[in-house]
Amino acid sequence: MSLNKGSLLSLTKIKPQQVIRLFELAKKIKTLRAKNALKLNNLDKSMAMVFFEPSTRTRASFQFAAFNLGMRVLSQFYGESTSVAKGETEIDTVLNILALRPDILVVRYGDIDELDLLLGKIDTPVINAGSGRRGHPTQALGDLFTIWQASKDIKKEKVLLIGDINHSRVAASTSELLNIMGVEYAYCGPIEWLPLKSKVKKFELKEGLKWATVCMPLRIQWERHEDKDTSPWRDKKKYHETYGINELSAKHFGKGLIMSPGPINFSVEMSREVLNDKRCKVLEQVENGMLVRSSIMSEILGIKVGG
Ligand code: CP
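Output (structure tokens, whole complex):
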């Protein structure tokens, strides 16, 4: 089963064999890229990107992902540089870009129900590049690809998601993907930021790090918090001492992987020194995200990847 001609708006319907197929293809693209041997002959295919929220990694890696396939990047539209600044809605913006007939549309947006509905109905394949607090499917796939490459048996891994679970779209999609793939995971963070009704295990940091083979501190999504001015966790030092990954807390963690989807607020969820820890895969995650995005677009558009 492939993603042929479909959209990737969430991971709800993805099957484990589709995920592994994407990973095998991403691995192949990595090898060909390292040998400078990718055939770039798909100039008839175009990708349009519309980002209504800020981005560095996702935006740049989708562009590189399209270049890996020899596609044209139709254009890149970003927040205040669009006519949204003049009062046009996000929906009208998307409809106008669709009128240019790109082969695939990549969209990042906030919690906008109407846009969710529209993107679910249109014929052009769409990839969700992060939507509000609801999901970030390509980030979850890229991060699992990082774990998959390092793991002898992915089902034996134990992933600890740390921090602002309730507001994090990465936590939402990663939890969904780990469920689908049968990988155990747990949460750690301030009680008010944890889904208390969920049956997922919850740990204090020290115990969680001892339990996990992968730990992933998440950025606090203050832009989605209603109590952003009054939360006690505005105290960065207190948050870092309680939930931060640093030279001290990382001593409780075994031989596994320290990951972050980024961006990282250093001295809050992670200390800068941890970047030099051999277990830290943060920059590999960026490359892997790009590779998986290439394989997703290759599957959706039927682009053959060959050397
Ligand atoms: N991980 C991630 O989505 O980063 P950006 O917001 O920089 O794209």
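The CA atoms of residues 104 and 124 lie 6 Å apart.
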